[in-house]
Automatic annotation (TrEMBL):
GO molecular function: metalloendopeptidase activity; RNA endonuclease activity; zinc ion binding
Gene: ybeY
Stated family: Belongs to the endoribonuclease YbeY family.
Protein's organism: Fervidicola ferrireducens
Cofactors (names): Zn(2+)
EC number of this enzyme: 3.1.-.-
The name this protein goes by in its record: Endoribonuclease YbeY
SUPFAM superfamilies recorded: Metalloproteases ('zincins'), catalytic domain
Cofactor note: Binds 1 zinc ion.
Predominant cellular place of this UniProt entry's protein: cytoplasm
Length: 161
């Protein structure tokens, strides 16, 4: 089985990103796709940014002039890969503010890594078409997020945060 191609771009200089975090991000995307029964022959781009960068994206694409934690941009196009003459679907882009992730990890009392991975899983589910516009959708999405986080060994703490 071919695993997803996860391309990580660190576009910020406020928080150090090490190889371990990059590997965990890749694993989180792949596991989310796998648990959802999604095609794993996809490409997902992950941009790690600061609050100023994500604020501009949020203002441009959502009309909200404030930093947010994660944005997802589904692509849904197909492109031909030259290497193996296979078709690889470009699933989309996930943008995570590492500054916001650090703030939220402190608020919720868990690790920075757990917060980043939660945001990656959340963003991947959005790329797969899940949303949380109403209570029913929110509940389904939260259950899927927690299933993946448990499988990664990063479950929600008993406090419910």
């Amino acid at each position: 089985m071919k695993l997803a191609q996860v391309i990580i771009n660190d576009l910020q200089d406020k928080i150090k990103v090490d190889r371990g975090l990059e590997e965990l991000i890749t694993k989180a995307v792949e596991l989310t796709l796998n648990l959802e029964g999604a095609d794993t022959k996809v490409e997902v781009s992950v941009a790690l940014v600061d609050n100023a960068y994500i604020r501009e994206l949020n203002k441009t694409y959502r009309g909200k002039d404030a930093p947010t934690d994660v944005l997802s941009f589904p692509i849904g196009e197909e492109s031909l890969m030259d290497k193996n003459e296979e078709i690889e679907r470009l699933l989309g882009d996930i943008v995570v503010s590492l500054e916001k992730a650090e703030e939220q990890a402190n608020i919720y009392g868990h690790s920075f890594e757990r917060e980043v991975i939660y945001l990656i899983v959340h963003g991947t589910l959005h790329l797969l078409g899940y949303d949380h516009e109403n209570e029913e959708e929110r509940k389904v999405m939260r259950e899927k997020e927690e299933r993946t986080l448990r499988a990664l060994g990063l479950p929600r703490e008993e406090s419910g945060l």
